[in-house]
């Protein structure tokens, strides 16, 4: 399977691959948090770990930077076994973002962002330039926010600072443990959109933990669904997880409305539209741009009296999508056709540019 992250080429100087080779965690009392888990994350890829409470997803994340020591297996960062590396030095190469941000309350925003560069002994001018660059990158004016303290910021602003701090030393990997769950739904959606934009620019290797399936579908290049004991039930693209659940556990976890969710990761492409006629172009029909999601197209139709939507490329009609076809896509496939449908959607999704993905998420 081609796991090159959707959207752009990988910059190998700023991202590292991660290989989990039968890693496990068993506590002294015999509790097995994670069994033997094997998982490979490509450089520059964003992988989302999801599963019910107690499935070990946060434990897996913390084993990567050795906040939790594995009791079995190997973790390779660009081929190097992290269990043989000094853990302090390792963590300085890995960004870490947690749910409650973890900013130092007695330090200014600028000082918080500069924490790791200062530990690494960067000169003051270099630290100052990096802080300015990162605050601008996450959408915070350095002149307005740099001298403030965490309690003077909103929850969403503090979360942005947390991301900036995690990126400060240009880590090769970014670990995120439910980073957006502590903010309200409107702010959460906005932060997710901004994070997609940010990832399109920095192209880091990211492993993100969430309990929110919609967030996993929106953000992940691939999704790893875990059950109790860190058992890997499925590891695939969002379209494949929703369109072809690999096990009864995954089918139950993604729910009966997985068809509607699948529309959000199914792009409208030239391969999926029907031919457009002169009569169609002359009619007053709603339109959606090429590259929009099928979810967007269905939303346009449901708010109009039309039975089809015209797909345009730079305002030129290239095809149509009918209401019936969109509703058919939203219907969970039978076991006999699910794999084929998911593969088609996944292949179509791989053709999207990062800008199309970003625009499609924004339009939701």
Automatic annotation (TrEMBL):
PROSITE patterns: ABC_TRANSPORTER_1, ABC_TRANSPORTER_2, CBS. The keyword Nucleotide-binding applies. Residues 279-341 form the CBS domain. Coiled coil: none annotated. Its EC number is 7.6.2.9. Signal peptide: none annotated. GO terms for molecular function: ABC-type quaternary ammonium compound transporting activity; ATP binding; ATP hydrolysis activity. It is an enzyme of class 7 (translocase). Residues 335-364 are annotated as: Disordered. SUPFAM superfamilies: CBS-domain pair, P-loop containing nucleoside triphosphate hydrolases. Residues 18-253 form the ABC transporter domain. Residues 337-364 have a biased composition (Basic and acidic residues). It comes from the Bacteria. It holds the Pfam family ABC_tran. The keyword Nucleotide-binding applies. Keywords: ATP-binding, CBS domain, Nucleotide-binding, Transport. Belongs to the ABC transporter superfamily. This is ABC-type quaternary amine transporter. It comes from Salinispora arenicola.
